[in-house]
Amino acid sequence: MNTQVAINRAAFELHLASVRSARQAGVASLGSARDGLELVSDSGKRWAFLLPDMTQPGCWRLQYFDERGFSGHGIYDSEEQLLEAAWAAGFTQRAPGALDRLAQLASFQRGNFAADLIRRMNLRELSFEQANEQLAAYDAERIQRASDGAQEGER
Questions:
Q1: Residues 6+ apart with CB under 8 A from 124
Q2: What 3 state SS string does the chain have?
Q3: Residue 2: phi, psi to the nearest 5?
Q4: How far apart are CA 46 and CA 68, in angstroms?
Q5: In contact, 77 and 59? CB cutoff 8 Å
Q6: Rounded CA gap, 26 and 43, in Å?
Q7: Count of alpha carbons within 13 angstroms of residue 122, beta-carbon side
Q8: Phi-psi group of 91: left, alpha or beta (phi > 0 → left; psi -120 to 50 → alpha; rest → beta)
Q9: What is the pTM of this model?
Q10: How far apart are CA 115 and CA 83, in angstroms?
Q11: 27 and 84 in contact (C-beta within 8 Å)?
C-alpha cells in the first residue's frame, strides 16, 4: 500500500470514529423510552413516540405521527435498537407533550378516522364507496358542529 493511500485510510477511519462518537452521544442524550419518549424530527414537522410495545411483550415500538394523525410504526427487539432507529430517522430532539397537543387538532382526529376507514377497507369490512361516504359524513358533522358553535357564540 502506498503512503498516500495509508494516510487517506487513516483520515477516513478517524472521521468514522468521530461520526460514531457524535451519534452515540446524541442517542444517549435522548434518554430512556421505558416510560414513553416523545421526539420531534429535525424538520419539526413529524414526531415519534417511543415506548415498550404492548402487542409484542419484550419489544419496543417507534410510533410515527404528525398533524394529520398516526402514520406508521416500527417494532424493535431492544431499547437500544429503538433509540438508534429514531435517531437515524432524524428524530433527535425531545418533544414532551407533543402527542397530547396534536391529538387535540381536528386534522389529527380526521386523519385517524380516515386511517381506520382504510384499515376496515383492507379487512373488506367496507367498500371504497362506503368509506368515502363515511368520511364525507364525518366531515359534514364537523362542519355542522363548527356552525352550531359559531351560532352559539352569536347569542
A1: none
A2: CCHHHHHHHHHHHHHHHHHHHHHHHHHHHHCCCCCCEEEEECCCCCEEEEEECCCCCCCEEEEEEECCEEEEEEEECCHHHHHHHHHHCCEEEECCCHHHHHHCCHHHHHHHHHHHHHHHHHCCCCCHHHHHHHHHHHHHHHHHHHHHHHHHHHC
A3: -80, 165
A4: 10
A5: yes
A6: 17
A7: 6
A8: beta
A9: 0.78
A10: 26
A11: yes
Amino acid at 121: M
C-alpha cell at 151: 351560532
Residues 11, 33: Cα–Cα separation, whole Å: 36
Per-residue pLDDT of the chain (155 residues; tens, 9 = 90+): 578 777 788 888 887 887 787 878 778 888 899 999 999 999 999 999 999 999 999 999 999 999 999 999 999 999 999 999 999 999 999 999 999 999 999 999 999 999 999 999 999 999 999 999 999 999 999 888 888 876 666 65
